Amino acid sequence: MSGIYPKIRLIGLLLLLLLVFLLDIAVGPVKIPLGDVFRILFSFPSGDSTWQFIVQQIRLPKACTAVLAGCGLSVSGLQMQTLFRNPLADPSVLGITSGSSLGVATVMLAGGNVATLYAIRELGLSGSWLITAAACLGAGIVMLLVLVLSARLRDNVMMLIIGIMIGSVTLSIISIWQYFSAPELVKDYLLWTFGSLGGVTNSQLPILGSVIGAGVIMAWLSSKMLDALLLGENYARSMGLNPQRARLMIICSSSLLAGGITAFCGPIGFVGIAVPHITRQLFRASSHRVLVPACCLTGTLLLLLCDLLSQLPASQTILPINIITALIGAPVVITLLLRQKNINAY
Amino acid sequence: MPDPSHLLQTRDLQTGYQTGNKKTITTRGPLDLDIRAGQLICLLGPNGAGKSTLLKTLAGLHPPLEGRVEADGADIRSVTPIQRARIVSLVLTDKVTTQHLTVYSLVALGRYPYSGWLGGLSEADRTAIEWAIEVTGIQAFRDRKVFTLSDGESQKVMLARALAQDTPILMLDEPTAHLDLPSRIRLMRLLHQLAQQTNKGILLSTHELELALQVADEVWLLQNAETLHRGAPEDLVLNGAFEAAFAHEDIRFDKQTGTFIIPHDDSRPVLLAGEGVAVYWTKRALQRSGFVVTVDPDTPCRIRVSGEESSTKWILENAGSSEEYDSIKNMLNALENTVIK
Amino acid sequence: MIIHRRFFFGIVFSAIVLVPAFSCRDKTRQPALEQASGTGTSSGTTVIRYAKGFSIDYHDHYKVLHLLNRTGDKTDTLHYLLLPEGAVIPSGYPGTPVIRTPVKSLAVLSSSHVGLTEFAGVADRITGLGSLQYINSPVVRQRIRSGIVKEVGVDNSLNIELLIAMHPGALLTMSNPDAATGKNRTLADAGVPLIPIAEWLETTPLGRAEWVKVIAALVDREDIVNPRFDSVEKEYLRLARIGSTATGKPSVIIGMPYKGSWFMPAGGSYMVRLLHDAGAAYHWEDTKGTGSLSLNFEAVAPEALKAGYWINAGSVNSKAEISARDPRFARFHSFQAGTIYNNTRRTNDIGSNDYWESGTINPQLILADLIRILHPDLLPRDSLYYYKQLN
User: How many CA atoms lie within 13 A of A120 on its CB side?
Assistant: First the structure.
């Protein structure tokens, strides 16, 4: 707890975060001089209105989305790993992200849209708000289902299994729709599943921000309960934890975070499972009072880094964010796990 | 009227569990038990008899099928979990698999009922933690990660956590299960000391009969769902409760020695004479080998023990011949050979 | 689901001379301004000038149809023998499937193919459609109402048994994957020839329209179709001359982005060809490829902000809907100037857009629309056919 090293580490990470955030705004397919970027950021008039549009309307909201998604996904994953005492748990383990996918698939695939092959290629999809709302609805329904079940179940392992089963069922339904859909609709749905940080506009950011903020604060307030759950539910109860209330808070908070991000950005994988492990190793902490904000920090860094990398390969195109998070996340987690002495513990 | 010296009391208690419509009764009772301050109570019984369920019911983790468990006059199922956590603390058999937990952090978790809303620790909390660490003797590894500890060390840590919880009652479920013999003895001694020094009421379940006989102030002997014997361990030995509880075709509890004896079908009589520690152990060896020690002077086979310490000699007299041996092993070999002949 | 339009084919075609009509078109006319995209195969009576995906060999008593069949990145050629009823199968074509001409009934899976059959005047021979949900042709709609046209499904839900029972003279599809193997083989074995009409692979508007000549060969109507096509071609070239020589080419953006990705037609695609002929400036016209470029919204933004016109802005009907999709679109110049145009003018009562049906065979009307939009000084804007302005 005390000692100069943790403070140095914290300051170092915060500075790195600032750097990566600015870098993410400064780099993009269109070359904008650094000076102009700063001028636009700090609201000084810049010469080119196109550049202003790009920095303010495209890059800034995307970077902010990365920050919010990084916080939300990692805190959600942390809670799931603690609640189920399972190192492989991630935000999707309760089936919330599957619920979102089902909502979106309902609109995209089963809804049936325009006419022929080239029509779909030229046009876009139906309103983005519709997709977001459908994703929220899907996540909400699954969350309610899980809450009802958790009140009746005494065992967390059963909830884990039920969550995974819900995920399977939704996947099957979506697969059926895909089977009967036009290739273009299938491709569009596939594109959605790749995740995207660029779809959130400045007007949508406050909504996403409040959702993520609420979820993270709820998680932080549950720190004490999460700490107790580290020893297992029997010990936790003997220490005074109310397991029903704990599960309620944790599920609500985690669903809010996972569902909110999936609704706006599509399913983004890997951050939720990898960041808690990285954070625990980096900060060597077990208390959630520290881990929740630490995960926000690490998660944001990771996602901003991934967003940066997704732009570099080809200058005009960007790679979907899910690909990058997996390509970066997996080796990191593997290295960390190999350095651990006890593979079984998490 | 609740007795103020009773930390915990049960009324008409019946424990068990219910799954759907099926009810399994583990102790029919109705049980009226109580735990007093400064006492170490051992809950004994064969495996599967329901010790764990009874313990968890007494701790308030499990609802009773009938009756109630009271502490301070109130039903412990009806108080809030936090209030209950200030009355009873537990050491269970659950494994803790969290990796990044240090020993100190784990012990600090015991302050859950008292710490701040985010888990912050006050001065009083830190004092309690330090005391718990000192009493269990784990200062040496307070900063180590939990997963690096041996079984004995981690058991002490879990005990420290329960002590940090600062409750009048401490319950332990099979605390000696995975420990080696020295650790087992040390743990029981520690618990005995704690009960006396801190005036806590300590209840532990175990099937370590011999250790329990050494340290328990009171024994609850759970023979089966219908029968629970209660009393000082020596009383239960003398009144045959132990014998009855552990009665089995191929095992017998011997009142005299306080140990288990494996009876043999055809026991050959041997007359044993002598004094001192060696006689006692010779008798055990003979019984182990299937001989029965008599005092009948007409017994043809006789053994005399003489000498002390390293100069002890065993003299075997049988059918007129007499031989001297310098170890029980040699004497037994000869004895068995003569019988065969 | 892809909504395919079908034409119901019912009239028996009897009076036409089976040997293809000799309206000589040997001379490979080089249109004035554009490079002919066809190879000008002049064997027989039908000259193909623009389409690259098919060729027809005309012999004395039969025709041989060659179709390029593309599945994924594999391309092979399919051959069909077009023989009149009762004619002897000529030697030299072992294993080639035979189609008896004139084809009297057709099952059609794609909207644009409905358009092709209508051009050839044989929409009344359609007996099966992929989906009855989207159809514009009045002839076919009438036949649906009287129950003559059946729905045969698309892709994986293609009702093979129904098709075999209906036994149309030919089934027109968009492609024929795994022609030799695969479940389409069942149809072929049952006597329902599957003909992939891949007009959608052509990169020029005239090339696409020229596929009507395949239909003509199937139904022995070359003498009707060829002159019709010639006049379409003539009109198109005339307009292209006007468009491509217009002074001042306004810049154009196409399509609607989704979640940060904007699919913009590549330089070799047919849409870009149309724009070129209409006298538009397209920022990506030098890019390679015939499909779409997957671009970052940010990469498109500088162009989108300044572009004079926004064409085919997605399935929207008003500017309010566009800004509801993404408020950033309201900053585009085309949004503020009101120069957003969508090809949804001819949407009928059941929500079916005729652009996808008759657009293939009316490239000259599409080109006219575009010129009207981009150069109102050259052609009056008030008589748009497919396009409408979004307000």
Answer: 20
β-strand pairing of C261-265 with C292-296: antiparallel
Helix (H) or strand (E) holding B222: strand B218-222
φ, ψ of residue C205 in degrees (nearest 5):
-60, -40
Domain boundaries, chain B: 6-249, 268-340
**What's the number of domains chain C is made of?**
2
Is C274 inside any structural domain?
Answer: yes
Closest alpha carbon to B134 in B92, B190, B189: B190
Quote the CA–CA distance of B265 and C150 in Å, as a whole number: 93
Question: Is residue C21 situated within a structural domain?
Answer: no
Same domain, C285 and C202: no
Per-position b or e across B286-308, b if 16+ CB within 10 A of its CB: bbeeebebeeeeebebebbbeee
Contact (CB<8Å) C296/A316: yes
Instruction: Tell me: do C362 and C242 sit in the same domain.
Output: yes
Chain A nearest CA to B87, separation (Å)? 10
Domain with residue C66: its CATH number is 3.40.50.1980
Distance separating alpha carbons of residues B315 and B304, to the nearest angstrom: 5
Domain span including residue C86:
48-214
C253 and C140 within one domain: no
A104 phi and psi angles, rounded to 5 deg: -65, -40
C243 contact partners, CB below 8 Å, separation of at least 6: C277, C278, C279, C367, C370, C371, C374, C375, C378
Rounded to a whole number of angstroms, the distance from the CA of C321 to the nearest CA of chain A is 8
What superfamily would CATH give domain A65-339? ABC transporter involved in vitamin B12 uptake, BtuC (1.10.3470.10)
Q: Measuring CA to CA, which residue among A129, A185, A127 is closest to residue C315?
A: A127
Both tokens of residue A159?
A: 């909830």
pLDDT along chain A (346 residues), means of 10: 74 93 89 85 76 88 95 95 87 88 81 37 46 83 85 78 87 87 79 85 89 95 93 91 90 91 90 91 87 96 92 71 87 78 52
Residues from chain B contacting residue A237 (CB–CB below 8 Å): 61, 81
Q: A116 vs C111: CB contact, 8 Å cut-off?
A: yes
The number of beta carbons lying within 10 Å of the beta carbon of residue C139 is 20
pTM of the predicted protein model? 0.80
Chain C residues closer than 8 Å to A311 by CB: 296
Q: Is the CB of A230 less than 8 angstroms away from the CB of B59?
A: no
Fold of B6-249: Rossmann fold (3.40.50)
CB C77 within 8 A of CB C64: no
ipTM > 0.85, yes or no: no
Q: How many CA atoms lie within 13 A of C18 on its CB side?
A: 16
In B20-133, DSSP assigns E strands to 22-31, 34-36, 40-44, 66-71, 74-75, 88-91
Chain B contact for A285 (CB, 8 A cutoff): yes
How are beta strands B34-36 and B6-19 bridged, if at all?
Answer: antiparallel
Cα–Cα distance measured from residue A261 to residue A299, given in angstroms and rounded to the nearest whole number: 13
